[in-house]
Amino acid sequence: MLSYLIIVLLFGNRVMDVKAEYVFDVFRVDSCPLSKEDWQIRSNQLKCNSSHGYHCVPNKHLTSLIEFCYPKGARIPFEEGNCLELAAHGILNQVPCKAFSSGCPESKNNIVFSNELHRYPKCLSINTDLRCFDADIACIYSRFTEEISSKQNQTTTEKNIFQNANHRNNEPEGINVAAVVVPLILGVVIFGGLIFGLLVYLRRNRKICFKKRSQEELEEETVKLQCAETATNHTKKTSVAKPFQRKEDNSCVKLAKEEQEHVCSSDDDEYEMSKTGDDHSEVNKNLKNIHDAILKNDEREFDHLSRFFDKDLLELTNNRGLNSLHLAAKSGNRKFFQRILDFGLNMKSRVIDGRNCLHIAAYTGSNLVCQFLLEKDPSLFLDKDRYDMNPAHWAALGGQDHILRLMMEHKCDLLKKTKYGENLVLFACIGQHVSVCKFVKSREEIKNLLNDKNTEGWNSIQYAAKSGNLDLFQFLVENKVDIKNKSDQTEKNCLHTACENGNLDICKYIIHVEPELLKKSSNSNQHVGHYAAKSGNTEILRFLIEQLDGDITNPLLASPTKDKINILHIACKFARFDMCVLIADTYPYLINEISEKGWNAALFITEKAGAEKERINILNFLVQRRLNVYHVSRSGKTILYNACVNRSPKLVRHLLKHYPDLLDIEKSMDPRQAAKSKEIEDIFIHHFERK
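^ thats the sequence. predicted structure below, dont judge the formating
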């Protein structure tokens, strides 16, 4: 019975259809991208863009990681000390993480952006069984104590019923001691069993680090449960490397002696094998040393460690699923690669993201390894990873034009595209590599790739405008790539893209060589001013004003979109304080303009979650400029209602304190019912108690 309770507690989570809970498409994933490169690649694969930005976060129940194109943008600001979840029917919501053992987002200006979430792996690692973040020890413990309390109450109730029935039948005199003692003993046993189960679970999953410590170490160690990671053992087919660990950015105490009882993590990659017993630490140590020697090209250390080599050990992988053969391909050491291959490792094995050894060697520019692989098995070039990229695409992304030349010598087809229409040049633009574009131009067979487009109509000019490399952009313009090209779906051009991404130098260059683009708008009537306002780069907006002869009455920059959204609305929406100041000073009449939905700037301030301090500063500034804080939209929404929907506690407190009459507007929807959040409800309760 006790074992059953523990198993149910550990693994009995709910299974939900995440797609049915949100108003836009979301997709379950086993893990989120943990690098800027992978984040961007995945964004391209899902066909996300700046207005529908790629995100990967836990769902609102913490039962799954999900990825999606967020309809409110790609770069959502939120406050440090928080992670994100997709709440309600599709709203990015802040989740406090200051109680994490480590890895909670931090920033010098208190603001973090959602497209940088890959830098905080702890926010992207959850325990789906307990519905907690892996680093949230308090949550994990509370889940156990909740179940303990529930089980104790159930046991006590059952025993009371039994004893009462027995008492009525036998009618004993005095107190039945057994009726009191037996339930008490059973309760203690169950409580102890569950606590024991918790400790075993945490230890097995690297949540508790047991080691012998000196008195000095005990005095210095004030943080408990530093290793709150849930290790995930992946099982792969024989053609795929065997991953044994998932990396988290934790910093458990580094162990220095072999006789220490258990290893939780190191300062570099974490290594968790399927092996158990006394040799666990030794195997762990040997494998990490082997991987380090390979990556450092340390031949002496590699030779020294070769006495430990066997196929099983060399097939074990690091956090990204790279085994020793993959790492040798990455380092480019032909000798290491051959010696590891001689132990029978599969040359066609793939890492977690689907790359093979040729993908890896091509990206890092490992010429000797690439040449060996192309001669040994040319079919490796035909393999595509989960992003539909072949090895040539990775070579272009890494700026390895010499590898592309080698591939051409081996008759590889460099004209191949992904299913999204991405070619060598587009990947070179993402990686900002002019040399690859020059190589493509120099080869008659592939030079037309410079002018190709992806399936959304983007050409290399637009990719270069986004990445921000001026030399690359100039090269493409000089080689007659169409600077006027527009995307098929939104009709966004390269100037829009440069403004949106805050690339001032490219904006200046575009207007210099093609000034007519200054007055072009997208199909929703978004102009350069809207995109500049979104980026927050005030220098770009000042430059645009100058290009229009300083005419502040010019209808271009002051004109709204088809939905009557002006540039101040955009700046408020994305919490760009300096941009709001510049716009309000330059175009003061925009402050109380109303959008098609009946929103003024006040409602746009709280349209998105995050960056609450910035939003409060914007509100205070615009109130001084006569912003109507009590404005109500056509559907009955107010600035307070939006703040509650987005679960922005600081904004809600600020609004209740300084604008309490927002609760008494007749036409408005009830903001208190909008949040469905205990934290927000407590703020309202406290507010009414003070009154």
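The two ends are 52 Å apart (CA to CA).
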